[in-house]
């Protein structure tokens, strides 16, 4: 069946191209951050997973982080211990179950992240300054839809916990 709206298909392809380009830029920035703070690529990935989960109000346990990163229990234990020792992460009792421990970004981790990424926030602010609020609201909806689509695709791949398929 032919596409009823070829312009829409072209726009969706442009958005997919933009997402890939943004992921590539983000990866490069993450490598610079990791290098400047003596972190490995996995350390940075772990920090990002913990930060995203914490921001969403669903902090991760070490086991959940292990599943998302697709590593062994020993590897995640070593990574978490190293990140705690470096001041990037901390363990916190789960308020719903004091026997469980959740990982959180430590004050030091927040500060180095803030110091590093504040200029990016300034560049972002300048880049978006001429766009109307309605465009920003639409972009937010588009990003939400893309995140949902990626999560659904990961689930289709058989990856419900964030492990590499």
In short:
This protein is mainly alpha-helical and 165 residues long. The chain contains six helices and two strands; from the N terminus they run H-H-H-H-E-E-H-H.
Characterization of the model:
Helix content is 68%, strand content 9%. It is mainly alpha-helical and 165 residues long. Strand 1 and strand 2 (97-105) form a beta hairpin. Helix 3 crosses helix 4 (73-85). The longest helix has 31 residues, at 6-36.
Number of strands: 2
Beta percentage is 5-15%
- Derived structural class: mainly alpha
First CA to last CA: what distance?
31 Å
Inertia-based shape: globular
Helix percentage: 55-70%
Q: Describe the main β-sheet briefly.
A: 2 strands, antiparallel
What topology, given as strand order, has the largest sheet? 1-2
Q: Strand-and-helix sequence, N→C?
A: HHHHEEHH
Summarize model confidence as the mean pLDDT.
Answer: 90
Count of helical stretches: 6
Q: What is the alpha-carbon Rg in Å?
A: 19 Å
Residue ranges: pLDDT <50 for 5 or more in a row? none
Q: In terms of topology, how is this protein built?
A:
Blueprint: H1 6-36, H2 41-55, H3 62-69, H4 73-85, E1 89-94, E2 97-105, H5 107-128, H6 133-156
Antiparallel strand pairs: 1-2
